[in-house]
Amino acid sequence: MVNKYDVVVEKLKKYNQEHILNWYNELDEYTQQTLLDKILDIDFELLNNIYRNKDKKVDMDNNVIEPINVIDSQNISSDELEKYIQVGEASIKLGEYAVVTMAGGQGTRLGHNGPKGTFLLDVIPPKSIFEILCDKFKIARQKYGVIIPWYIMTSNQNNNETIEFFEKNEYFGYPKEYIKFFKQGELPMVDESGKILMEEKGKFKEGPDGNGGIFEALNRNGIINEINDKNIKWIYVGGVDNVLANMIDVVLLGATIVNGYDISSKSVQKNAPQEKAGVFCKKNGKVSVVNYTEISEEMANQKDSSGSLVYGDMNILSHLFSINALNKIKDTKLEYHVDHKKADYINENGQKVIANEPNAYKFETYMFDCLEMFSDMLVLRTKRENEFAPIKNKEGLDSPQTAKELYLKNI
After folding, report:
1. 1-10, Cβ contacts within 8 angstroms, sequence gap of 24 or more
2. Do residues 273 and 293 make contact, with C-beta atoms less than 8 angstroms apart?
3. CB 310 within 8 A of CB 321
4. Which CA distances in Å does 374 have to 161, 344, 377, 378?
5. 258 and 146 in contact (C-beta within 8 Å)?
6. How wide is the angle at C-alpha 373 spanned by C-alphas 319 and 291, nearest 5°?
7. How far apart are CA 260 and CA 249, in angstroms?
8. Residue 60: pLDDT over 80
9. Which residues of 75-99 are buried (b: 16+ CB within 10 A; e: fewer)?
């Protein structure tokens, strides 16, 4: 019988990662077995390929970038609007709608010790981001007479604390059987030479696999099967940090159904051509989101006949997928992107090293990469001041203060 330890040693030698077992004999038996199993699960070939391509630049010269058709919510006729509302409301009342919130991050940048969703907005009375989002479900329940399932993606880092927060707050008065938590995937982080970083003895450092990992996480945790079994046909996916997110939008839902799309997204117009955000467009004939760095200055400043930026519809992480689309995406491996980050770790002597500058690579997938699997989609342009108030920075732009001001104007 082949010894598991020997198999692991051979695997690590092949990929020059033997340092992972430096303190193996100091670990208890349970931790030893957990470590061996995790090593066996790692796709080192994948990690090596991503690392080798870390410096690969996006070649935009060979790409054809074109504007994408956008429906401006301010220009929808009253007849169209009424139809969209009727169709959207009917779908929700039939129990065909669910919401997924990506909440795997911590509130570190805000100076908050805990999951970002537990951050308290300074309103009267103070409300956490989670409670502000939950209020929208309670309003929809009262309005449409249905309880909409809410799936919350956490991370290994904040899962237990998030669940405890909901339990402590009695799920904010929403039926707890309709709120389900699931964890996103993680990938090991590597140093600048490609070696996996160790967080502590017997545990390597991992980072969330990006918002594009949500599809695999939904599948791995059985949620896509559950959604299929419940005959849910539409799933809204958004981030936790936008307190104005209109997660249950009958206009978006109705417009998507009426116009025959499998996916749709909301956008807001950029404040300026140089605003650092991805924008919707068509790339080589396929729907896409390109970063502000990937289009020329001339394209970034180009305006249409109404004076709007041609490439100004910003991705605000507000997406709607049909169950058919999710079933199509769930088994697709999205491209990994590399982020140069600061990461604390223990060195080969077991000493803690505090990073003062980027020293590691984190591997992530981006949700918008899945859009290129579809020939077309609906993009609904909404008003920034009504639907986009992210909390990302401690002060200044996209901070608790700016979010508070917009939130109070919209309640």
Report:
1. 4/33, 4/36, 4/40, 5/36, 7/40, 8/36, 8/39, 8/40
2. no
3. no
4. 37, 40, 7, 11
5. no
6. 65
7. 17
8. no
9. ebeeeeeeebbebbbebbeebbbbb
Distance CA 20, CA 24 (A): 8
Please count the residues of the chain: 411
Cα–Cα distances in angstroms (integers) from residue 251 to residues 84, 158, 202, 220, 260, in the given order: 5, 34, 51, 31, 14
Q: Which amino acid is at 90?
A: A
Looking up tokens 């599809």 gives 215
Place of tokens 């790692």: 42
> What 8-state DSSP symbol labels residue 276?
S
| Sequence-ordered strand ranges (E) for 70-202 | 71-72, 97-102, 120-121, 127-128, 150-154, 179-183, 186-188, 190-191, 198-200
Q: Which of 154, 130, 316, 135 is nearest to 223 (CA)?
A: 154
Strand ranges (DSSP E) for 219-262?
234-239
Distance CA 384, CA 244 (A): 9
Torsion angle of C-alpha atoms 251, 255, 257, 262, degrees rounded to 10: -110
**Structural domains in the chain plus CATH codes:** 1-41 (no CATH), 77-266+315-410 (3.90.550.10)
* 1 CB-near residues (< 8 Å, 6+ apart): none
Q: What's the gap between Cα 13 and its chain centre?
A: 35
% helix, strand, coil for the chain, step of 5: 40, 25, 35
Please state whether the predicted TM-score (pTM) of the whole model is above 0.90. Answer: yes
Q: Give the pLDDT confidence of 132-187 residue by residue, as tens digits.
A: 999 999 999 999 999 999 999 999 999 999 999 999 999 999 999 999 999 999 99
